[in-house]
Design a protein that fits this description.
- The chain contains eight helices and ten strands.
- With 335 residues, the protein is α+β, with helices and mostly antiparallel strands.
- The chain has three domains: 63 residues, Alpha-Beta Complex (Type Iii Antifreeze Protein Isoform Hplc 12); 124 residues, no CATH class; 72 residues, no CATH class.
- Strand 9 and strand 10 form a beta hairpin.
- It is elongated, with a radius of gyration of 50 Å.
- About 4% of the residues have low confidence.
């Protein structure tokens, strides 16, 4: 048997060591181990749901519905629409709430006779009246506000009254049912929209007065309100509040002048004393007349010629001058 030399053994051991070292370096320099492939996603399917409330006899538009992906294992009613193109353009047979699945049973078939759709009169609540309003909303014509929607009606008025603050917007009526949406015939209405609402007679009078003096606008109410017939709060905001202006102090109130006293004059009539109440203004007028009369007398005396009623143009005597006194002026006040 041939013996292996020590040199051969040494070379073999060194070769094994270098191989192990090389393998270690290669393993650590190659980066982290690749992640395992992701688990396959669970299978899904498409369903079509209503994006907003759809009333009976509404014609569905693409913006009225949306497609949702749900797990394929989810149970859905038979007849569920999965393709939006199948529902678009068709007429609803029943009311479909926002978020509900659109079903073939909820839609009239293509070309099927749908009968006479309900008129605005059919939607008016008992005891209510239908009133048409011009509203300054540019979003009315986009189809979001339709017959069957509930809205709040707000008014905007301008004025110089301190409480208005340049312009005032106030919620006038809340949770009002719309029974029709139309095109406006008023050229001043930039939105070109008008609505017909179902209101009580009192609310109708309020709106008739408001539409003559201010602009009206509507905001939609969520169909999920607990009680659409319950009254809400009449919120209001002024332009000064929006821009953060300080409220102006109220104008000073001028004090009312004190009442002028009357004069009480006592005189004897037939041996009996009576009191006569003379208004203050009449006494002042009499005093002015007395002053004017005295001035005329003084002027006449200075010229030596004084003319009295019922006398000639000759100069008055001193006795005649003394006969005319202030009592002559006040005598008419007592008659």
């Amino acid at each position: 048997m041939r013996r292996i030399s020590p040199g051969t053994v040494t070379v073999g051991v060194m070769a094994i060591l270098f191989g192990l070292i090389a393998a270690y370096v290669v393993r650590n320099s190659g980066g982290p181990e690749p992640a395992p492939p992701p688990a396959p996603a669970p299978p899904t399917k498409s369903i079509v749901v209503a994006r907003r409330n759809l009333e009976q006899h509404d014609r569905i538009r693409e913006s009225d519905i949306q497609v949702l992906r749900v797990p394929a294992s989810r149970d859905v009613p038979a007849g569920t629409v999965s393709n939006p193109m199948v529902a678009s353009g068709r007429v609803t047979r029943t009311t479909i709430k926002a978020g509900d699945i659109v079903n073939e049973n909820d839609l009239y078939g293509i070309g099927e006779d749908i009968g006479q759709p309900p008129s605005a009169a059919d939607l008016i609540k008992p005891g209510h009246r239908a009133l048409t309003l011009e509203v300054h909303n540019t979003d009315i014509n986009n189809g979001l506000v339709r017959a069957g929607s509930y809205v709040d009606i707000a008014m905007t008025v301008e004025g110089s009254h301190p409480d208005i603050g340049k312009t005032l917007t106030r919620t006038l009526l809340e949770k009002i049912l719309i029974v029709g949406v139309h095109s406006s015939t008023d050229p001043r209405n930039r939105s070109g929209a008008a609505i017909t609402v179902s209101v009580t007679p009192e609310q109708a009078n309020t709106l008739i007065n408001a539409k003559q003096n201010c602009q009206l606008a509507v905001s939609m109410v969520s169909p999920n309100e607990n009680d659409l017939d319950a009254p809400g709060s009449k919120a209001e905001v002024t332009w000064d509040q929006i821009v953060g202006l300080r409220a102006l102090p109220p104008p000073p109130v001028e004090p009312k002048p004190a009442p002028t006293p009357n004069y009480v004059v006592q005189k004897y009539v037939g041996g009996k004393m009576v009191e006569v109440v003379l208004p203050y203004n009449r006494v002042i007028e009499a005093q002015k007349a007395d002053a004017a009369f005295a001035s005329q007398k003084k002027k006449a005396r200075s010229t030596g010629f004084e003319r009295q009623p019922g006398t000639s143009d000759e100069p008055a005597t001193e006795a005649e001058k003394e006969n005319t006194t202030n009592e002559d002026v006040f005598e008419g006040l007592f008659d």
